[in-house]
Structures are given as structure tokens and as C-alpha cells.
Amino acid sequence: MPSPPRKTAKITAVGKYLPEKILTNFDLEKMMDTTDEWIRTRTGIIERHIVADGEATSHMATKAAEEVLRKRQIGADEIDCIIIATMTPDMIFPSTAALVQHQLGASKAWGFDLSAACSGFLFALDTGARMIQSGQYQKLLVVGADTMSSILDYTDRSTSILFGDGAGAVLLEPCEDGREGIIDSILRTDGIGSDSLYMEAGGSLHPASAETVANKQHYLRQDGRSVFKYAVKWMAEVSAELAARNGLKSKDIQLFIPHQANKRIIDASAERLGLSEDQVLSNIDRYANTTAATIPLGMADAIDQKRLKPGDNVLLAAFGAGFTWGAMYIRWGEVL
Ligand code: COA
């Protein structure tokens, strides 16, 4: 007897939000010892969006989620669960998911935050997909949102130039015949990277104090070269492994949407997969690294630019603090 079709979770709508204010490389030239030319050639970044005073992760996440609801023409009360991937929550607690639930008016939803830095959206999408597959949930919001400007030291030229603020959201729904949606994924974590990219204070190990503030321990710190080395190796490796085990040759991949940390990391991963430029989504020039938001923002741009159609094979890949990394294979459907 043929085995019954495996239910999958499919993305049915994508929304995005970017704050109005733009910070260009030329603006940064006036703030620190850097140049537009250095930033452009070493990272591919030209400008990034930055929140307004009083604007935080939950506000951006809610706006991206509202666009999803608008496109899908459903009410917030139809949402079963909200997963927010972020490493810059409004507060350590309550969760940003609780704040977004309230701002959206998602009266029947529960939710939680997921912390996996730049791989957060991928981890959250995989988690959400499993929940849909369980049969218990019908409409689940997965949001990647980060206010990186809230943890950057704008006197440190080696880190502050790399990041921006933003949010992206997707709606997951069941696909009963499993013909489209999230097909496969490989996710990894290795704490070997915990001293390469981190924010030292504000948690239980180094609670906030006058001393931690004076020592600038509430800012993101990074060993850029080490992160670069691991990101190139592991993001490319996991993407290649996932493609191979699904029988995907380079010509079979219509779009690769990688985390946007550095154009050189994106290019190295694409090269390893044998992809040409038109098979790769890159928007790092306009948004910089928005951490958990890069992949849903990439999906939103790909839709706006009409670069995706039903049946396309889409590969996602991410790498971030932890270290955390992974790849996901999606068969694209009708996505609003
Ligand atoms: N403007 C001008 N010069 C800068 C600079 C800036 N914004 N930042 C660093 N430099 C200088 C350094 O001081 C160094 O000078 P020196 O040679 O006189 O000491 C020189 O540029 C080279 O620095 P280096 O760190 O070797 O540059 P790099 O080519 O490795 O690029 C990063 C630095 C941060 C762009 C790169 O390492 C990177 O992208 N790493 C990964 C970061 C990342 O992806 N993080 C998020 C993970 S998801």
C-alpha cells in the first residue's frame, strides 16, 4: 500500500517592516574613523535602517505581522501561535511574543521567543513547521526581528558598521499533500563560538551594574575574523549537505536566500553551491545585517521583485552567534 502523503507546513504570506530612518556609510564616516569605500568593499553594505526613539523590536515585529494578516485577509484572532526570533527583545521578560500578541490583538494565540541570533529565524521556522505538522495548529506566525542599534557601540568601527534594524514575518499553514512547503532542514549549534560573538552583561552571569555600563559590557562584541572563517565554512557546508541529500544540483535551485552578514560570506556560500548571481538573493547593500530578520526580509524582497513562482526550489541558509547555523529546503507555493 502506498504510504500516505506527508503533511508539510507551507508559507502562505510574507510581510516586512523597516524603520524610516536610514544611516548611510557616509553618515558613519562622520561618526567614526571609517570610509564608505572600506565598508562597501569589505562587507557589501551601503546603508541600513535604524529605529526611531521609542521604537523597539515588538513594534517592528507587529508591523511585519500586520502586513501578513492584511495580505492573507485574516483577522489576528485566527492566529494560533506566534514565535519571535530575536536577540534584542524589548525586555528580558516578558517575551517579545507576549508584547506582539497584545499589539496585534491575537486573542487566541500563545507564543514564545526563540534565541539563536542570526540563525533565529531558521530555527523558529523549523520549530513552527513541526508544530503545524503535528496537526494541532493551523495558522502560525513566525517573525524575525532585531533592533541591533540598541546593542551597538557606535565608537567601535569594527562592529557598528555591520548591522541594521528590521523585521520580517511569515504565516505558516498546513499543506496536506506535502507537495509544497518546508521539505527538509539541517540545524546546528556549537558553543565553541560563544567567545567570538556575544554581549557580556545584562544576564545572570554579569547582571547590570554601574561597572558593567562603565566597561561597555552591554554592547555586542565580536572577533570578526573568527566569525568570518566559521561562517564561510559551516554555512557553505550545511547548504551543500542539504542540497545533496535532496538531490538538488545547482541548476535545480531557483533561489538561494542566505543570511546577510557580509557579501563575501554570501558569495563564498553561493560559489560552493555552484550558483550564479541571478540564483542568489542579496539585499545586504540596503539593510546590512538585521540578524533574525535577514531571511524573511530576503523572502519579501524576492516576492516584490517577482523572483519566485510556485514549484521553485528555494534554499535558505544562516550562520550566527553561538555558533548556530543551518540550511532549509522549501518548495515554494502561492505566497502572498
Ligand atoms: N573602517 C575602516 N577600517 C576598519 C574598519 C572600518 N569600519 N573596521 C576594521 N578596520 C580595520 C582594522 O582595524 C584593520 O586595520 P589594521 O590592519 O590596521 O589592524 C583592518 O581594517 C582589517 O581588519 P580585519 O578585521 O582583518 O578586516 P576584515 O577584512 O576581516 O573585515 C569584518 C572585518 C568584520 C567585516 C569581517 O571580519 C566580517 O565580516 N566578519 C564576520 C562578521 C559577521 O558576519 N558577523 C555577524 C555574524 S552573523
Describe this structure in words.
It contains ten helices and 13 strands. It is α/β, with parallel strands linked by helices and 336 residues long. The protein has two domains: 8-179, Peroxisomal Thiolase, Chain A, domain 1; 182-331, Thiolase/Chalcone synthase (Peroxisomal Thiolase, Chain A, domain 1), CATH 3.40.47.10. Strand 12 (313-320) and strand 13 (324-331) form a beta hairpin. The longest helix is centred in the last third of the chain and has 22 residues, at 224-245. The two termini are 37 Å apart. The structure holds coenzyme A (COA). Coenzyme A (COA) binds next to helix 2, helix 7 and strand 12.
Class computed from helices, strands and strand pairing: alpha/beta
CATH-defined fold name of the largest domain: Peroxisomal Thiolase, Chain A, domain 1
Name of the CATH class of the largest domain = Alpha Beta
Q: In total, how many beta strands?
A: 13
Order of helices and strands: EEHHEHEHEHEEEEHEHEHHHEE
User: Please, what is the oligomeric state?
Assistant: single chain
Question: What is this structure's SSE topology?
Answer:
Layout: E1 8-17, E2 21-24, H1 25-31, H2 36-43, E3 47-50, H3 57-72, E4 81-85, H4 96-104, E5 110-114, H5 120-133, E6 140-147, E7 165-175, E8 181-189, E9 197-199, H6 210-214, E10 220-222, H7 224-245, E11 255-258, H8 263-272, H9 284-287, H10 294-304, E12 313-320, E13 324-331
Parallel strand pairs: 4-5, 4-6, 11-12
Antiparallel strand pairs: 1-7, 2-3, 6-7, 8-13, 9-10, 12-13
Helix pairs in contact: 3-4, 7-8
The structure holds coenzyme A.
